[in-house]
Specification:
mainly alpha, single chain, 11 helices
Length: about 280
């Protein structure tokens, strides 16, 4: 178990530092640190998502029996990905910190500002990214022990399907980068927005009904009877995992409505605009 976790602890922060330093030092680029940090964090998230969804596809397509079949990659990648969630909490804070500095709230020469300002940034970060930080913490403190210990080698097929939920992440990251650089009205942003909406709907929202349907097909039960046949804690866990996905999907749909609003429509109110 230790080897994959150590590897993940080296790969994800290492890729972040490599990307950030490359963007800052290449003569053709020479990006500012804030831009390099934000883009590098999105890049690492996209790489992790591609790796996770690829691993999930391999596992799910290799398991013919959805309960008993096992694949070594299911436990190996789960262990490898744990350091990513810990790293990403810090990476998201760095992005928030640099955005805070760019907005002019830092001290002179980009310094940290007055005493106590660091804690103000931390509080602002936790307030803005509370759901994402909570999601990452749950993945490490709850989902990881459950997937490694509680499953006892059962249900690799379902774990593989859950890993494929990351298919939407590269589109989300690209969308955030395009918004950061005021490219909301480009064709690339609109195409990416449509792909993000579709992939998030299929791979994160409809994934849960599909998993219930797959178990029902295995057990010979109609879809509506599956929740009654499962233990309460399984349904509760699925509901807790689905809830933030529905909230994020609502935000994506709201953003898509603004993106594809016909010309001449009134602009969104200030409270609706994104940072």
């Amino acid at each position: 178990m230790l080897t994959p976790m150590v590897a993940g602890g080296v790969v994800f922060p290492g890729l972040f530092l490599l990307s950030k330093n490359t963007l800052q030092r290449l003569p053709q680029l020479r990006w500012e640190e804030a831009d390099a940090v934000i883009v590098s964090a999105r890049l690492v998230s996209s790489v992790q998502a591609i790796m996770a969804s690829t691993a999930g596809y391999i596992v799910s397509t290799s398991c013919k029996h959805i309960i008993d079949d096992q694949h070594w990659l299911s436990s190996a990648y789960t262990q490898f990905a744990v350091p990513y969630f810990i790293y990403d909490i810090y990476a998201m804070f760095l992005c928030h910190w640099h955005k805070h500095q760019v907005k002019g709230h830092g001290g002179e020469d980009g310094g940290p500002g007055a005493p106590g300002s660091t804690w103000a940034v931390v509080r602002g970060y936790l307030h803005k990214e509370f759901l994402m930080v909570l999601h990452h913490a749950v993945m490490v403190l709850v989902c990881f022990p459950l997937s490694v210990v509680w499953r006892q080698g059962k249900g690799d097929y379902f774990l593989g399907c859950l890993l494929m939920a990351e298919v939407s992440t590269p589109f989300v990251c690209l969308g955030k980068i395009l918004i950061q650089y005021k490219q909301q009205h480009t064709l690339l942003h609109k195409v990416n927005g449509a792909l993000m909406l579709l992939s998030f709907l299929c791979c994160r929202v409809l994934l849960f009904p599909y998993l219930y349907w797959a178990y029902g097909r295995h057990a010979g039960l109609p879809l509506l009877a599956v929740p009654l046949a499962l233990p309460v804690h399984v349904n509760l866990g699925a509901a807790l995992l689905l809830a933030p996905q529905l909230y994020w999907f609502f935000l994506i749909c709201r953003g898509a409505c603004r993106l594809f609003r016909p010309r001449g429509s009134p602009p969104p109110s200030p409270c609706q605009t994104q940072d």
